[in-house]
């Protein structure tokens, strides 16, 4: 439900899973919120063998050096991404940086080793590697990039690094529309939002308490969208609320919340807790092995509690020997269902009682009322064909919420300032604990990947301090980010799912965030080799 890349991504995900919108090299908002990249190493032109004095024994030809700046393009189907490598083997250890130019992700650390003409690169941050052979003239690296599936990659030596676009001064939210109108002009004419696509986006921005909502394409400012995996952050907040109200403990086994006899306790060792599910370290797979949708256009509608509990009974709730981050839709779906079981109600009713009701988010729901359905914009798949809405059953806590840009801004403002919630929030018992629950939901619980940690389902970029999550369903995509230090939040909602390896909602959210803070903005147009 929550997102999909294709081949150019760091984690292989099936099309209909509730996976994070991860794709080649880095998750997009890492670039959106991080600082400037280190300066590239100076270019090292290809060595030229100097003439040797004549002698009885010819001198051996020097081995060319792989130091320098290299540029190539990865291709997967119609998708392409430019890769720039900056390498200085004279340093100890060798200086190595990788740039994904079309994702505007620069300075990704790498390690390099050379044996003869063979170059080996490891890029831990994206779990990728390169094995390449340097040509005899020292001007070409011919190799294979591996990040899931192997892809051919040929890099050619450059005399200088490609520079980022000039930095625009920070744009105040009050003046943002004029800037976005210009930035999106080409996209509206021939790109992701061209008239023939039937696509549209709602963009919500809040900065220092000033809110703005912009809509482009076929949607309106009050259009309702599916938000996909951003739902997981609501489930994390429901967990925090339940802890604040002393209804559960973070370290409580999930088994204790399920109906008696659902799953046996592990024979030995620790078992999966509520925190393990929210921090994505439970060891549960991305999707259950008994997921067999009767209707491929609405694949989660018939996956009910019975199926969910049957999977858990079969899989068990033992923790892995070495817990580590592993994105699991079934895990967060189980968490949402378990919290509803403990509360003796449905996930949707719990959501309204604990979060959307106190915050006054009247346009946020799982099941849409007639007025909301009238504003529910039709969805489209990644090829801009009409797509069925997804009615998510037992896994609703992983991706079943629908909302508007305005309501999502209300949600993100609460994330930015838990200690300054409107007075109306505390009018209910549930609202009285919400401020503490919001703050608790931001406490980091473990490393998600190098440079990124996870709180209660929110991911946080270490360098910038930005919290984020994204999502997609069969006909919609979304991305949300908030930065308490810089006091801004951005949400982008689209009526189009993911069709390539640059999820447009992720790219646009990154672009808007970069405009707000005055960093070079990721390009919005089509990728060019």
Strand-helix topology:
Layout: H1 28-33, E1 68-76, E2 79-88, E3 95-100, E4 105-109, E5 111-115, E6 118-123, E7 128-134, E8 140-147, E9 149-158, H2 176-183, H3 185-190, E10 200-207, E11 210-217, E12 225-226, H4 231-244, H5 274-278, H6 305-315, H7 329-343, H8 347-359, H9 370-374, E13 379-380, E14 386-387, H10 396-399, E15 402-403, H11 405-416, H12 429-432, H13 434-441, E16 446-449, E17 452-454, E18 459-461, E19 467-472, E20 477-483, E21 488-494, H14 504-517
Antiparallel strand pairs: 1-2, 1-9, 2-3, 3-4, 5-6, 6-7, 7-8, 8-9, 10-11, 10-21, 12-15, 13-14, 16-17, 17-18, 18-19, 19-20, 20-21
Short description:
By secondary structure, the protein is an alpha+beta fold. It is built from 14 helices and 21 strands.
């Amino acid at each position: 439900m929550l997102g999909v890349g294709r081949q150019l991504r760091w984690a292989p995900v099936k099309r209909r899973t509730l996976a994070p919108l991860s794709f080649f090299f880095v998750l997009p908002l890492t670039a959106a919120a991080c600082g400037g990249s280190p300066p590239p190493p100076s270019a090292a032109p290809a060595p030229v063998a100097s003439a040797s004095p004549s002698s009885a024994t010819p001198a051996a030809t020097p081995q060319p050096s792989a130091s320098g700046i290299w540029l190539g393009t990865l291709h997967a189907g119609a998708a392409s991404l430019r890769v720039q490598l900056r390498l200085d083997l004279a340093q100890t250890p060798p200086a190595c940086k990788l740039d994904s130019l079309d994702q505007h992700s620069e300075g990704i650390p790498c390690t390099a080793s050379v044996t003869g003409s063979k170059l080996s690169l490891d890029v831990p941050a994206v779990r990728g590697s390169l094995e390449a052979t340097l040509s005899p003239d020292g001007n070409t690296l011919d190799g294979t990039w591996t990040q899931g599936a192997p892809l051919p990659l040929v890099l050619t030596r450059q005399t200088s690094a490609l520079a980022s676009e000039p930095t625009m001064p920070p744009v105040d939210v009050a003046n943002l529309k004029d800037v976005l109108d210009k930035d999106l002009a080409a996209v509206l004419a021939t790109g992701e939002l061209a008239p023939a696509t039937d696509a549209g986006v709602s963009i919500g921005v809040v900065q220092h308490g000033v809110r703005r909502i912009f809509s482009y394409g076929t949607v309106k400012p009050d259009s309702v969208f599916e938000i996909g995996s951003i739902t997981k952050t609501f489930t994390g907040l429901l967990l925090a609320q339940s802890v604040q109200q002393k209804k559960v403990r973070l370290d409580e086994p999930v088994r204790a919340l399920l109906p008696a006899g659902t799953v046996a306790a592990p024979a030995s060792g620790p078992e999966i807790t509520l925190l393990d599910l929210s921090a994505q370290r439970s060891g549960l797979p991305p999707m259950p092995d008994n997921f067999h949708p009767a209707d491929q256009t609405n694949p989660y509608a018939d996956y009910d509690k019975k199926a969910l509990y049957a999977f858990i009974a079969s899989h068990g709730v033992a923790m892995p020997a070495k817990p580590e981050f592993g994105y699991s839709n079934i895990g967060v779906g189980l968490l949402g269902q378990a919290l509803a079981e403990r509360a003796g109600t449905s996930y949707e009713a719990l959501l309204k009682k604990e979060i959307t009701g106190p915050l006054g988010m009247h346009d946020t729901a799982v099941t849409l009322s007639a007025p909301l359905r009238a504003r529910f914009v039709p969805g489209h798949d990644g090829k801009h064909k009409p797509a069925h809405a997804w009615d998510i059953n037992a896994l609703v806590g992983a991706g079943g919420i629908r909302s508007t840009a305005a309501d999502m801004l209300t949600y993100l403002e609460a994330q930015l300032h838990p200690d300054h919630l409107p007075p109306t929030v505390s009018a209910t018992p549930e609202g009285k604990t919400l401020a503490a629950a919001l703050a608790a939901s931001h406490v980091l619980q473990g490393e998600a990947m190098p440079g990124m940690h996870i709180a209660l389902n929110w991911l946080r970029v270490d360098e910038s301090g930005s919290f984020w999550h994204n999502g997609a369903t069969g006909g919609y995509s979304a991305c949300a980010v908030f930065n308490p230090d810089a006091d801004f939040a951005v949400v982008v909602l689209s009526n189009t799912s993911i069709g390539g390896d640059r999820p447009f909602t992720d790219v646009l959210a990154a672009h808007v965030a970069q405009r707000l803070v005055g960093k070079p903005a990721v390009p919005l147009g089509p990728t060019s080799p």
